[in-house]
Amino acid sequence: MTAAAGRRADPLPAAAGDDRAPTRRVAALRGLLPFVRPYRGRVALAVLFLALAAASTLAFPVALKTLIDEGLVAADPGERLMALRGHFAALFGVGVALGVFSAARFYAVTWLGERITADLRNAVYAHVVRQSPQFFETTQTGEVLSRLTTDTTLVQTVVGSSLSLGLRNAVMGLGAMVALIVTNPTVMTQVLGILVLVVVPSVFFGRRVRKLSRASQDRVADSSAIAAEVLNAIPVVQGFVQEAREAARFDASTERAFDTARRRTRVRAALVGFVIVATFGALLWGLYQGTEAVLRGDISAGHLGQTVVFVIILVGAVAVMSEVWGDLLRAAGATERLMELLATESPVRDAPAPRALPAVQRGSAVRFEHVTFRYPSRPAQPALSDFSLAMAPGETVALVGPSGAGKSTVLQLLLRFYDAQQGRVLVDGVPVPEARLADLRGRIGVVPQDSTVFSTSALENIRYGRPDATDAEVVAAAKAAFAHDFIERLPEGYASFLGERGVRLSGGQRQRIAIARAMLKNPPLLLLDEATSALDAESERMVQAALEAAMHDRTTLVIAHRLATVQRADRIVVMDAGRIVDVGTHAELVARGGLYARLAAMQFELQPAAPEPALDNRGP
User: Fold this and answer.
1) Does residue 268 sit in the same domain as residue 406?
2) Closest C-alpha among 6, 3, 35, 30 to residue 16
3) In terms of domains, do 282 and 397 share one?
4) The sheet that has 396-400: what strands, in order across it?
């Protein structure tokens, strides 16, 4: 099992270095702009409510000044009471406006955060599922899941909360600054000096926070990769009694993530503490200067109250923006990772002007012309070397040979999971890189050796082969694949939930579900990769008969290690080390000796009394 902890395999571009200027790192959030643009109207509405909420907050000091100077200093008690009522009513009006606009801002911004994050998550997922298998050779599934969950959650926090909070405090801080400059320039000059002392260390701490945030997200991705790998292999883990070892490996990974998060939190805590101390210092200094001005008679008591509140708003805004800066740095790291996924280009994609595949009547024609192919993860070792093979429409060809001979590679090139480095692969006369991927794969049916069953009902699992099929067509395909009887015996029949990866079925039952799915698709080209490997002898006889019927008027390429299943194929192609070493019928190959004869002798010596119905394209 791959040890994910401590060594992530990741073909994605490396993140930009952490020594960049913080403003350039936060600029990574510009990658979210394409997801924001469709909601420009809602963004404008959110900004409007944000501005109105900030204006309501800035109106409070002005109302307070009027209350103190006009409501408290009036000589006549009756006039004072009436003035107080009017001023307190004005203050309550400010509070109501602040509450209404803040609620509207909260809803608008939270809606944007949820919507943009959902769009981002959908875009990343849709992009990832279109990547070729080359991408998944080196990228762990857990890494992708971490980016789809943890990273998008961080982005959601910023877009739906922190960014709005930062903008609101920026507006309030700017408004308070302008008010202080107009009403008390002397105090403002001194407060600005203190704020500079707050901002400079905040930028320094922010650089460290961002670096640790990216590292923390990577460590969480390591843990996700281990969990995904192990949970998908629980029977193996438990069969080898490795539960304690895997739990310890996951524990070590989470401890590394915790240690990184602890260091990040320590830096942010130091930043928070510093900002609070500096905020109180600025507030007390402004209050001291204002009090002396009142005693000198330079300003009124109301003016002092107004100045103090404006200073509180300004310094508080700076404090909040320092917090938001840390959140922005974390979100920038998450956005970088998501943008890396979106920027990853699959080497297998449609040509700029794809060619249409011709209509076929009796199966597809297939041709390999001097194909040489190396897997990207093993560039020094050719999987196929100068491989040439032609299949006529309706022909059944079997590929046999030892493990590693290149048989499955032939199927993967036909499906265009990879492109050959040399030579050509053609389907119905069209080179596969020139055909639309959807058209090419649409006319190919596959029954893999490891059958895939999804976490849904038996009916929907078979219908996966052709989503527009009726229930009757699904049932007919199940009957043809000899799956109908065991499906009917399930608790809810075709509506029965089969569990994750089909854990409620036996291996043979899963295989028959996969065969029914391929038969429902009814493609002109059928690829069978050990399609009966998980079946017992009785089930195999039934499914072989079904497959023979399914292969009528259809080109079929069969991979088989059990030679009894391919004895009556039209041709048997013997492969070894990525090359064709012999071609013929079963009788011809046995008579000539060689690799096929040796394989046949070993198998039939071990199983002399197990003749099986053969694959045949001529129907039952």
Assistant:
1) no
2) 30
3) no
4) 444-447, 525-529, 555-559, 396-400, 571-576, 579-584
